[in-house]
Every structure is written in C-alpha cells, then in structure tokens.
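User: structure tokens for MFS transporter, FHS family, L-fucose permease, please.
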Amino acid sequence: MLDKPSFTDKKYLVTLVFVTSLFMLWGIAITMADVLNKHFQHVLSLTKSQSAFVQFAVFGAYFVMGIPAGLFMKRFGYKKGVLLGLSLFATGAFLFVPAAYTSSFGFFGFALFILGCGLSTLETVAHPFVAALGDQRSSDQRINFAQSFNAVGAMLGPFIGSYFLLRTNVAGSTDLTSVRVLYLVIGIVIALIAVSFSFVKVPATTDPHAVVADPDAVNVDIAPGKKLFEHKHFVWAVVAQFFNVAAQAGTWAFFINYGHEKMGFTDLKAGNFMILFMGMMLTGRFAGTFLMRVIAPNKLLAAFALANIVMCIIVAQSLGWPSYIALLLINFFFSIMFPTIFSLGIKNLGVHTQQASSFISMGVVGGAFFPFIMGKVADSAGVAHAYYLPIICYIVIFFFGAKFFRVKHS
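Assistant: Done. Predicted tokens:
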C-alpha cells in the first residue's frame, strides 16, 4: 500500500513560495487592468468601447505569447521561463512611465501588451512548475493551493487600483501622475522579485508523466490513432474556453461602470465593490471544489452556466440592488469554469496533452475581443443591456458541459 503523499518536500519549499507568489501577481495585474479601463475613460476621454482596448492588449498578448512561452519553457526550463515572464512584466510596467508623459493611449496599449506577454509566460510556466515540485499524487493539491492565491490577487488588484487611481479622480482632469507612479512602483517590485528568484537554487523537479501512483489515473489516449484536432471534446473545450474568457473579460471590464451608472456609486465605491466581486469568485472556487465531490464536474459546469444566464438577464433589467447582487453572483458561478473546461478538454489525450494545454490556454484570446462588443452596446444602449451579450457565451459553455465534453473512443 502506498504511503499518503506529502504536500511537497522540504527541499522545494523556497521555490514553492516564489512560484506560488506568481499566481497572486498576475491576479493583481489582470484585475487592476479593469480599474485602469475606467480610469482611462476619465483622464483620456475615451468611450467604453475605446477603453476596452485595455483588455484587448492584455488578453491578445496571452494569445500571441502562449505557444512561444511553452517552447521557451521546454527549451530552457522552468526557472528561466519564470525569469523571462517577470522581465516582460517589469518592462511593461516601466513603459507606463513614458506612456504617461506622452498621454498616448496607443503607447499605453503597447505597454499593456508587453506586460500581458509577461503574464502569459508566467501563467504558462507556473502551473506545470508547481505540479513538478513534489510527489505527483499531490500535484492537484499544490495547484489548487497556488490558485487560491490567484483569487487573493484578484481581490487585491481592484483595491490597489481603486485606491491609487480612482480615489483622486477629478472631473475633467487629464493628470496621469497616479498611473505613472503606481506602475513605476510595480515595475520595481517585479524587478526585485526577478533578481531575488535568480539567486534561488531550484532542486531537480519530478516528471509529471514519469511518476505514476495509480495506473488507472494516467492520462491515457484511448484513441491513439487520432490526431489532436480529431478529438472532438478537445476542440469543444477550446471553443468553450474562448467564450468563457470572453464573458469574463467583458463582465469584469464594465463592472465599475455598472456600479457608477446604475447604482449611483462613486467610481471609488464601485471599485471597492469589485473587491467583493472577486471575493465571490474565491468563495465559488471553494464551494465548487466541495460540490465536485458529489456532482460530476461537467454537470456542475452546465448548472453554473445556466445560473449565469439567469444572472445576466436579471442584471440587464436594471432592478437596482437585485440586479447588482446578480452581477456579484456572476463571479461566483464563473469560479469553476476555466479550470473545469481545461481539465475536461485534456482528458484522455495522452501524448497530445501538453500541446492541447497550449491551445486551450490560447482560448483566452476571447477576452481580447468581447469587451469591444460589449463596449459598443454599452455606449449605444446602456451598460445594463450590454450584459445580455454574455448569455451567448454561457449557452456554448452549457452545451459543452452537458454534451460535448464526452471523450469518444473512435
């Protein structure tokens, strides 16, 4: 009988602390971009559809950098992959300084793209890195532990962004000093983390595909004659992930706008509610993990997708607090979608697993385009009516969870 696997080994502790912190860092950066979206509407006099370029730059970078980051990691290893990601992250943050001096939204877009390339690299490297830091039977525990810090980062991002950017908003102001100072500090912090990590000696890691405790748990390709894109459940997972991140990016991008325009909140108060909004995602993640003990993941995914269809309908009605509570609950039901779609999509792919992971991760590009469309609707018909659009996304996710997740043997 096999001993119960340890969470990690003592030799990996320092490395695990550093790598786990990365999950929090990109959570902060991504949700801070949603605050930046609202701030740019003020200081650069942008429409909602124009400010959605913030999300386009960040999520577009995920699409562009996904495969190169994976190839770099495979060629040079986990540590150098992390250092590349941190370097790009810091460089993008430092580029905010000249962008602020020139007041150029195009320059900000370029800075966000470089920063996004860093986030994409970190996310590509960090998941398998954490999995490799110990016994593979406990790798899921380590990844879930690290992802909990990502949710904490998603709460810190709106708090930091609202305090430094929205707190000082003055009608008609074009001052970008707060943006310049905030991202200069972020760049310095990330650079210091990179330098510190460069001195960490990473012990030899385990191979997730070589250490197998239970042969029945191995990701065996049950249709080895198929090429990757002949696996229909994988193809549908890529599609579902595209629409999942599209809905997420659009919902997050205009959350502050909804609070300001429909609830009468100040930008700062609406930004502070975003902390609660992200807390709902953390709560949903814990609740979803518990529910999956008794409910099949695909069924829970389908149920959560249906719930968010209902939430979007309520949000679009502008009913005051009932609609705002429904908006908060959207993030609760978001919580399990990304990892569940991911895990269902790579099921029984065998040697295709790593390549499939890259393609599913690239589905994040949905977040680059959807905020533009929601912004156009918000500009013309109002921000509440823009929340009808994510319903399309949840319909796709529902069908994936209800039917198209199935692995076909031939």
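User: Anything notable?

Assistant: The CA atoms of residues 378 and 386 lie 5 Å apart.
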